[in-house]
Design brief:
alpha/beta; Rossmann fold; Dehydroquinate synthase-like, alpha domain; two-stranded antiparallel sheet; 51% helix; binds nicotinamide-adenine-dinucleotide; binds fe (ii) ion
Length: 360
């Protein structure tokens, strides 16, 4: 039966434009601001261009590497923390790792030498946010530009944490597809599959609602149609634009539902088997879909909008789609023995995200 009572909320302003610098001028204005990005040449040039347009930043972090870790935040020196405190807004130019790092910076890291204190504080506080985030994604995948949480990793203890607070939604997401034109093939693939995973995980989810599912269906269809063509035509501007839009649709969908079983399985896989997030959370999608089928009529109806009437055939199609992208669905191919994978699956079913799975 159709759901009659639900809420959908997302406060991030979305600006699709061909010139992110021009948009920044309007959204940062004359405020003291910081920049968070990676160190590669492309991004160093961008830092110069941003400062050329907005004036000198009070805080610049160009040392962001994939999967932000506790050790990075705890090592931030006193002087850097004082500079961070001066920033009223943060420009986050990069993929999920950069935008998630900016969320930690925005949440008041300068006042808390140990990141664990910030996580505790955020989980208990009504109001948190002191800095606006202007997120400019350079991958088409994570949707972090429209979510209110950041994934932080503690490689020392082998655990994944979530900094989550309603004040952490970016104020603005500036979506300029040209930033993704030179995205290397493996990152294009991994981030695109992450977006597909967000869309599907928001469908087989106890928190799904008609609006989140609407975004999820649109996103899934675009990604399934576009990603294989894009892998063969990486310079195609229209395909890049489609993927960026699809990643935002997926982000909007799971911003209201959070993820589910495939993501919960991905955490030990990423930590223990060194697999990038987008692959770790997508190679189990056919398995998770087969478990979801038949557990909820609304979920089945939504899946039919993506995969057609025969859902078991749809799961086979999904497996074939991954296989054509050279993504194996066999844990063994990632060095995960069957017994270990079974443990990951069982643990995930009762994990924080796994409990969102409609057939958990
Ligand atoms: N907060 C959320 O809602 C959310 C959702 C999903 C994933 N995540 C997190 O996001 C992270 C993954 O983010 P990601 O997949 O966007 O990748 P990433 O930010 O980890 O970056 C991966 C690599 O891509 C490179 N790169 C990024 N953009 C580029 C470009 N335009 N051109 C060339 N190289 C580029 C970076 O230098 C980096 O080496 C993980 O830590 C994951 O847990 C967060
Ligand atoms: Fe993800």
């Amino acid at each position: 039966m159709a759901q009659t009572e639900f809420t959908f909320f997302n406060p991030t302003k979305l600006v699709f434009c061909p010139d992110y610098l021009e948009s920044l001028r309007c959204h940062v204005g004359a405020r003291d601001y910081g920049i968070v990005t990676y160190s590669d040449a492309f991004f160093s040039d961008a830092v110069d261009q941003i400062q050329g347009v907005l004036g000198k930043a009070v805080f610049v972090a160009t040392d962001i590497t994939p999967n932000p870790d506790f050790s990075y935040f705890n090592a931030l020196e006193g002087e850097r923390r004082r500079d961070l405190a001066k920033a009223e807004a943060l420009v986050a130019l990069g993929g999920g790792s950069v935008i998630d790092t900016a969320k930690v910076f925005a949440a008041g890291l300068e006042d808390r030498p140990d990141i664990r204190d910030l996580l505790n504080f955020a989980s208990q506080s009504q109001a948190l946010r002191s800095k606006d985030i202007i997120a400019i994604p350079t991958t088409a995948g994570t949707g972090s530009e429209v979510t209110s949480w950041a994934t932080i990793w503690d490689s020392e203890s082998g655990r994944k944490f979530s900094l989550s607070h309603p004040d952490l939604y970016p104020k603005v997401a500036v979506l300029d597809p040209s930033l993704t034109y030179k995205l290397p093939p493996r990152i294009t693939l991994a981030s695109g599959l992450d977006a597909l995973s967000h869309a599907l995980e928001s469908v087989w989810n106890i928190n799904a609602n008609p609006i989140s599912s609407n975004y999820a269906v649109r996103a899934s269809r675009i990604i399934i149609e576009t990603l294989p063509s894009l892998m063969n035509n990486p310079e195609n501007a229209r395909l890049r634009q489609m993927m960026l839009q699809a990643a935002v649709f997926s982000g909007l969908a799971f911003s209201n539902t959070k993820t589910a079983l495939a993501h919960n399985i991905s955490y030990p896989v990423s930590l223990n088997h060194n697999l990038e997030h987008g692959i770790a959370c997508s190679f189990t999608l056919p398995l998770v879909m087969r478990r979801a089928i038949g557990s909820d009529t609304v979920c089945d109806e939504t899946l039919r909008e993506i995969f057609g009437n025969d859902l078991h055939n749809g799961a086979d199609q999904l497996e074939e789609f991954l296989c054509n992208l050279e993504i194996s669905t066999d844990p063994d191919d990632y060095g995960i023995p069957a017994t270990t994978f079974k443990k990951y699956l069982n643990d995930a079913l009762t994990g924080e995200r796994g409990r969102n799975f409609i057939a958990a």
